[in-house]
């Protein structure tokens, strides 16, 4: 994906998420790690930008060290995004996009007592398309300590043989990552819809059994 294509895709995905209610107001951000053939570095949505009304020419362009080169002022979450790229890279070298939202049902699950992971394995597509989603204890937005905790968590899961594609920041929202904006958006959609199912369930949840999960591993390569 060229830089020009990445700019257009960030705006397309941002508009889609906004129009369908996955983000609101100026919440959320999207970044893309650029190919070395385009000079490397990153594109990220500007601070306080509405994802539904992004201008490709005004996205923040940063070098490989996170220093801004041009565009509107970068979102303060670039430090977190860069930690995700660095930490996920050894397990998923093609990681190219990170999306952060304040998705309603995901956030709602962290406002009540919860375990160390946001959701149990209740549907096959959650297991296949998302996987484990560890919850990161609350830090103020932009806190460097949160980025460090996220990096440590990604490394811990990867080294244990279950690489992850998402973390949940308590009271803030999910961060998801994949090899393209479209794939990252699909991961986010599956995560939020699973959280919606849990929020609307009136009975005790019954997770998939270990043999059922093993079938998903063997058949679809699920990482659980």
Can you tell me about this structure?
This protein is 39% helix and 13% strand. With 224 residues, the protein is an alpha+beta fold. β7 and β8 form a beta hairpin. It starts with a helix and ends with a helix. The radius of gyration is 17 Å and the shape is globular. The model has no long low-confidence stretch (mean pLDDT 96). It has 7 helices and 8 strands; from the N terminus they run αββββαβααβαββαα. α2 (78-88) packs parallel to α5. It has an 8-stranded mixed sheet with strand order 4-3-2-1-5-8-7-6, sandwiched between helices. The chain has helices at residues 3-19, 78-88, 104-109, 124-129, 144-159, 181-200, 210-220, and strands at residues 29-33, 42-44, 60-62, 68-70, 97-100, 135-136, 166-169, 173-178.
Helices, strands, pairings?
Elements: H1 3-19, E1 29-33, E2 42-44, E3 60-62, E4 68-70, H2 78-88, E5 97-100, H3 104-109, H4 124-129, E6 135-136, H5 144-159, E7 166-169, E8 173-178, H6 181-200, H7 210-220
Parallel strand pairs: 6-7
Antiparallel strand pairs: 1-2, 1-5, 2-3, 3-4, 5-8, 7-8
- Percent strand equals 5-15%
> Alpha-carbon distance between the termini?
29 Å
How many DSSP H or I helices? 7
Largest sheet: 8 strands, mixed
Rg, please? 17 Å
Number of strands: 8
Helix-and-strand structural type: alpha+beta
The low-confidence parts are none
Strand order of the largest sheet: 4-3-2-1-5-8-7-6
The averaged pLDDT comes out at 96
- What series of H and E elements makes up the topology? HEEEEHEHHEHEEHH
Shape by Cα distribution: globular
- Kindly state the percentage of residues in helix: 25-40%
